[in-house]
Amino acid sequence: MAGYDRNFTDELRTRLSIVDVVGRRVPLVKKGQNYWGCCPFHNEKTPSFSVNEEKGFYHCFGCGEHGDIISFTMKSNNMDFKEAIKELANQAGLKIPEYKPKSSEQVAREETYFQIVEDASKIYQQKLFEPEGKVALDYIHRRGFSDDMIKKYRLGYAPKNNLIANKFVNVKQDKLLSTGLCRRGEYGMYDFFRDKLMFPIFNMHGQVVAFSGRSLDGSEPKYINTSDTELFHKRKTIFGLNFARDAIHRANRSIIVEGQIDAIQMQSNGFPETVAPLGTALTEDHIAILCKSNRNIIFCFDGDSAGQKAAVRACDIVMPFLRDNSDVKFAFVTGGKDPDEILKNSGTDAMRKIIDESTPLVDFLWEITNETFLVSTPGGRTQAEKFLKQKTDKITDVALRAEYEQEYNSRKFNSWHKWKKSDKKNINIELPEIDSITQKTLIFITDKFPEVAERYAEFLASLNINFDGTAPEMNLDAKAAEKYIVSLKLQKYLEKLNAEKKDVMARLLAGEDLQEKINFINSEIARATENLETLISI
């Protein structure tokens, strides 16, 4: 065991759920907060083998076996420590580094790191309430933060001068540089954070490990974070999780918002289970960490295009982590607002309504597919089906993936392929009104010759006709009925072409170079007219 330090084994425990690791060997059933199965280490008929996902350990109440993912892999596979680490690293998709035990110098270096950032945090806190921090304090008060909230989350202010570089002048430069608080410039050490509202970033033990600084003068980027250090990795750190961990357990879910202010306001106004990634980059590591606490996640994004893109990316990332006990949803705050604005202007009840009405992942992915692709055409449906398959293929739980595929196959059949006389949901274009005689004729055809109607379902649906009416008997056979529909389709196509030509001609007169478009429309009009004349003469 001496060949590996705790950084790598801790990363394995973070990346891998003990329920997934044990579940490969033992069928588990969730009862209460734990999972239960028959112990693999002794013979039993009544399950006494308990697995706690949040804490990451198993315990058998029959034989007393107890441990984590490493000990389980060693015992169940009869492996030594190194073999178990290799097996788990393969499952996690991690490369095993050649770690050595921590030296006394490394331990001391880490202690110094924690002490420097802790002292810096206290300095920033003090400066926020001094005259030079007035702009920052006024800003955060305007955002609805009380002094109690400011103290709880230890907000501070980094002044414009090189305060930290001067305060820690007696600290060795390499130690100060390793915290990310200072940089080395042409004229010596200078502060990385200057004139910033400071948000401390905590690890799971509540220790300050880094900072996020917000600009106060409107400059971009709006937020800057401590660069990755030996003890801080942005892609593996979730803002607010140290405060939210117990609440996530109680609420049986986590809520992910886009920024620090949103997370703090949500936690302080009835949603203590809320967290945020650092910046906009949600990662697989963030989801893996949250899933160890709870697999029920609500992504709450702004309703603008950036929020939609973030939601699609989140959907992509979360797919491999889905299990049959996952409940993943998407909530959108519309009208250019974010959770902070909703809470401040409309209150907790309005925010709760948004969260309660969030869209399940299975529906969100379906909606995105229908909005992205033109499913009224064979080509669009083909693209949409490939898109759905690409997403569902990422689900690693085989049984769950099969359920998703079955669900979407049913939806595709009912919404994309199946002819429904009364279905008007998929109307894509508005065409001129249909006269009553034509309407009655089409109603007769759809009742008398459903196979003909099915062939031209997309066109018939585009006419916006209520096919539930009744029509008198007509002297039409199937061939004449199809001829009637094709003729009507050509007429409507000609009407559309002529309307488009009129619009293009107006733009042509206004100076746009659209002659090639005019030529194409004229050739289409000539072709459609010829086809219509041929059809009528038959």
Give descriptors for this structure:
538 residues, alpha+beta, six-stranded mixed sheet, five-stranded antiparallel sheet, 23 helices, 17 strands, 51% helix, globular
Structure, briefly:
The protein has 23 helices and 17 strands. It has helices spanning 6-15, 18-23, 69-77, 81-92, 104-128, 134-142, 147-152, 163-167, 173-178, 241-251, 260-268, 284-293, 305-318, 339-345, 348-356, 361-372, 378-392, 398-417, 436-448, 450-455, 457-462, 478-509, 515-537; strands at 29-31, 34-37, 49-52, 57-60, 66-67, 156-158, 182-185, 188-191, 196-202, 208-215, 223-225, 238-239, 254-256, 274-277, 296-302, 327-333, 359-360.
Largest sheet: 6 strands, mixed
Nearest-integer average pLDDT: 84
**Whole-Å distance between the termini?**
88 Å
Work out the helicity level.
40-55%
Strand percentage lies at: 5-15%
Number of helices, where a helix is a run of at least 4 consecutive DSSP H or I residues: 23
- The structural class is alpha+beta
Low-confidence sequence ranges: 420-432
Number of strands: 17
The largest beta-sheet arranges its strands as 12-14-13-15-16-17
Global geometry: globular
Rg from Cα = 32 Å
